[in-house]
Design a protein that fits this description.
The chain has about 220 residues and is of the alpha+beta class. The protein has 8 helices and 7 strands.
Length: about 220
């Protein structure tokens, strides 16, 4: 009996000694695994966000030119406001284009311009119209046929990018062609009319504001 008790006591002591060692070993494995995972995570390179422009992005995507400074910063006549409206309506909200808007109304072209799709409008400023002697301007404004011919000569039936303005000839709604040339932010139409604020978006058109009224060649 005494021998049996001694054997049981020995087994109990052995188990008591082995159990803490087993738990310690298990805990050590978890700690080592966590440490390795943390080290791997901290050493992994951070994902970098590319600062390069998206493929296909036009570096000159917005309006340009010295005349753009006179465009209102806020409201319907601002660039953001004009982009929401069709071209004749957008022009009516820009104070620098009030004479053009008057001419468009007299010619009955408001609906024609607003309903057209994907057009380019070369829009003369008030100062451009002021270059025409008053008597001559009054005569043009009173002659609907002549006025319509002049105004439709300022409209091309496609949206033109600044790149296309570097050198090209384009048919107008008036049926005769106009020519453009230039580069960067400097462009002219028919060698006489300078773009002072270009690439202005409206809901249905791209507008290039010019400093001289264009006259049809025929």
């Amino acid at each position: 009996m005494n021998a049996f008790r001694i054997r049981r006591t020995a087994l109990a002591l052995t188990a008591a000694a082995v159990l803490p060692l087993t738990l310690t070993a298990c805990g050590g494995d978890d700690s080592s695994s966590d440490s390795a995972a943390d080290k791997a995570a901290s050493s992994a390179p951070a994902k970098e966000e590319s600062s390069a422009p998206a493929e296909g992005t036009d570096p000159m995507a917005g309006p340009f030119g010295p005349g753009c400074a006179s465009v209102p910063k806020e409201g319907a006549g601002s660039f953001d406001g004009m982009a929401q409206d069709p071209v004749a309506t957008a022009a009516s909200n820009n104070p620098a284009l009030s004479t053009l808007v008057t001419a468009v109304k007299k010619a009955g072209l408001v609906d024609t311009l607003n309903s057209a799709e994907n057009i380019t409008v070369f829009a003369p400023t008030n100062d451009a119209f002021a270059k025409i002697p008053k008597a001559d301007l009054d005569k043009v404004l009173a002659d609907k046929e002549m006025l319509t011919s002049i105004l439709t000569y300022h409209v091309v039936g496609e949206k033109l990018t600044p790149k296309q303005l570097e050198g090209g000839t384009y048919d107008t709604l008036q049926k005769s062609a106009l020519a453009t040339k230039g580069s960067g932010e400097n462009y002219t139409v028919n060698d006489t009319s300078k773009v002072v604020c270009g690439n202005v978006p409206t809901a249905n058109a791209t507008v290039y504001i010019v400093d001289t009224v264009l006259m049809p060649k025929s």
